[in-house]
Amino acid sequence: MNRISVTVDGVAYRNDVEPRLLLVHYLRDRLGLTGTPVGCDTGSCGACTVELDGRSVKSCSVLAVQADGGEVTTVQGLCSPGGGLDPLQKAFHQRHALQCGYCTPGMIMAARDLLRENPDPTPDEVRHGLEGNLCRCTGYQNIVHAVLTAAREGQEART
Ligand code: FES
Ligand code: FES
Question: How far is the CA of 155 from the centre of ligand 1 (A)?
């Protein structure tokens, strides 16, 4: 067992974990944060994407011990304290960018990374930026629209 200290969605945790425990299983099974789903468990689908120290990672490809001392943000940590949706969550809702919703947490977390690096992306850049995240329902079109909507609103908020 290894003892880890990690902050998740603003809450500090200290737990003993098996050295081979994946971050996604730590989040879901130990902390009960089931908003981060497991799709493939092999780093292929992106459903499990979270932020670790400000960068998006596929949490099925990271060991919990690698998050020791770090800060993790899951899709559950994006809402305001009053429960209001963050701009990307709102845009996904408004633009009907989900059907079953299984890919949505990962899409939103990957899109945050994309918009941080490129706050005003083209549709092609959005598609390229999200190519590590798979959706089997939507055909991607509304996901791209949602990310462009959030980008536009981010631009307007800054002007
Ligand atoms: S569950 Fe992690 S990439 Fe698919
Ligand atoms: S909405 Fe079903 S997998 Fe994307």
Answer: 31
